[in-house]
Design goal:
There is one protein chain. This protein is α/β, with parallel strands linked by helices. The protein has three domains: 106 residues, Nucleic acid-binding proteins (OB fold (Dihydrolipoamide Acetyltransferase, E2P), Beta Barrel); 141 residues, P-loop containing nucleotide triphosphate hydrolases (Rossmann fold, 3-Layer(aba) Sandwich); 52 residues, Probable gtpase engc, domain 3 (Ribonucleotide Reductase Protein R1, domain 1). 28% of the residues lie in helices and 21% in strands. The protein contains ten helices and 15 strands. The chain has a six-stranded mixed β-sheet with strand order 10-9-8-11-15-14. A five-stranded antiparallel β-sheet has the order 3-2-1-4-5, with no helix packed on it. Strands 6-7 form a two-stranded antiparallel sheet. The longest helix is centred in the N-terminal third of the chain and has 15 residues. The radius of gyration is 22 Å and the shape is globular. The two termini are 40 Å apart.
Length: 349
């Protein structure tokens, strides 16, 4: 990372202007009643503080870029006392304000955020990355194998968090029969979600990937072992350590241990995140799930019963569409897997 000043800017100038306008509005206390003034005082950055951006978080230490330099920081005590539904109060990508003691005293409102339900405490939200434009959802053909329902979990979390989803299928050099992969590509392109087929090992499809990340801030996310760090190495020319797949389980091992904001070229940033073995959706009910399956929702408008779960009800237009081939069986199976939690217990509250 050579140009640290790049990390402190938002690529979308309109979003940056909105954030700055909010700060100015907060300083204009004339619109607040006296009873609200003390509360508003807490909601603005302290005097003589400096704006920065979190680039990495590890045990007991937060690194922040401030005025082009990286400093080691921590959370101010008043922030630690805040009661929230979040497991972590800050995440990589957050724009923060550092006080005179070098502590994070204020966290700006996020314009986008990728999160999931915490693995141990399902009622807590685990923040993964913030203030980014798109999520590059990385999966692999094999080792570990491709799971459409996991892709859809990420897509839902991405859209809920205000970002654009991009699907990247790595290790296509391991593909045999392409029927399944081609069907997936048709499904997601029909949903206007970019679908890239690449190979980090053989440098296939990297030109398309470079075009996708150009001028944007992105987060690479996906299962352990799918090749996120390898792809970032290809984009940057770096040699960040990559992991291997455990042959007994065919699952990836964790190599990236913490999220990190990285420069990947001119006016482009990315966040490399640790791999996951499960991805539980945060704060979504089973009833809300169909809102994120627009292809199912289209057929569901003519179901006999409303609301319809599209699982067991008679006269279900979604099930009829699957039976007639008008709706992909893969897509429907993914919906059922997420709704019923077959591959992710307790994934929906």
């Amino acid at each position: 990372m050579s140009d640290y000043s790049l990390f402190e800017k938002s690529f979308d100038s309109r979003k940056q202007m909105r954030n700055e306008r909010k700060l100015l509005q907060q300083k204009d206390r004339s619109k607040f009643k006296k009873s609200d003034q003390n509360k508003e005082e807490i909601l603005k950055p302290p005097e003589n503080s400096k704006r920065g951006r979190i680039v990495t978080i590890s045990t007991g230490m937060i690194k922040v870029v401030v005025e082009g330099e990286i400093i080691e920081s921590g959370l101010k005590g008043s922030l630690k006392k805040e009661v929230t539904r979040n497991k972590n109060l800050v995440t990589v990508g957050d724009f923060v304000w550092i006080d005179e003691r070098g502590q994070i005293a204020y966290v700006e409102k996020r314009y986008s955020c990728l999160s999931r339900a915490d693995a141990l405490h399902q009622r807590k939200q685990h923040l993964i990355a913030a203030n980014i434009d798109q999520v590059l959802i990385v999966a692999s053909i094999e080792n570990p194998s491709l799971k459409p329902s996991l892709l859809d979990r990420y897509i839902i979390a991405t859209e809920r968090g205000g970002m654009k989803p991009v699907i990247i299928i790595n290790k296509i050099d391991l593909a045999g029969d392409l029927t399944f992969l081609n069907e997936l590509e048709e499904i997601y392109k029909g949903l206007e979600i970019p679908f890239l087929k690449v190979s980090a090992l053989h440098e296939i499809g990297l030109d398309s990937l470079k075009e996708i990340v150009k001028g944007k801030s992105s987060v690479f996310s996906g299962q352990s072992g799918v090749g996120k760090t390898s792809l970032i190495n290809d984009l940057t020319g770096q040699t960040r350590r990559v992991g291997s797949v455990v042959q007994k389980t065919k699952k990836g091992s964790h190599t990236t241990t913490h999220a990190e904001l990285i420069s990947i070229g001119e006016n482009a940033l990315c966040i490399d995140t640790p791999g996951i073995k499960s991805f539980a959706l945060w704060d979504i009910t089973s009833e809300e799930l169909t809102n994120y399956f627009s292809d199912l929702q289209k057929f569901g408008e003519t179901c006999k019963y409303s609301p319809c779960s599209h699982t067991h009800e008679p006269g279900c237009s979604v099930k009829e569409a699957v039976a007639s081939g008008r709706l992909s069986q893969i897509r429907y199976n993914s919906y059922l897997a997420i709704r019923e939690g077959h591959d992710e217990p307790n994934s929906l509250r």
